[in-house]
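Review form for a predicted model. The reviewer records the input and the model, then writes brief findings.
Reviewer: anonymous (R2)
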Amino acid sequence: MKKRITSVLVAMLCCLVLTIPAFAVNAGATSTLPRLVDDAQTLTNDDTVYILDKLNSVSEQYECDVVIVTIESLEGDSVVAYADDFFDYNGYGYGSSRDGILLLVSTQDREYAMSTSGSGIDIFTDHVLSNMENKFLPNLSKKSII
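Model under review:
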């Protein structure tokens, strides 16, 4: 099961990477948390290291924070509000305009949301996000994550 979840998260990462143009604001990210937060404990340690390395590499290359978060429960919150708050309150975002995108997956609630900030709002338009969802959502649903 954990291998399948890793495959799905890597596929989602690839979707994110393919939509980031090679431009952005300089200066690094400011979050004290890693770009992969697996609070739902869906990944093995090796998978976590591999995915985190990819997220860090892509984020630095394109100067746009790319973040994946798994949680067990939304605890009554809306998935969109939770994703937005997680991005904002944990200091994610590259540079002064806080460029980035965050994918949040709630395993118990079987919901997900993507939050964008800074140039991430312009890069990841509704059309782009919809195309990304069409690519990874069927695999994510098959793996019983959502």
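Findings: Confidence is low (pLDDT under 50) at residues 21-27.
Further findings: The first helix runs from residue 2 to 18.
Recommendation: see findings above.
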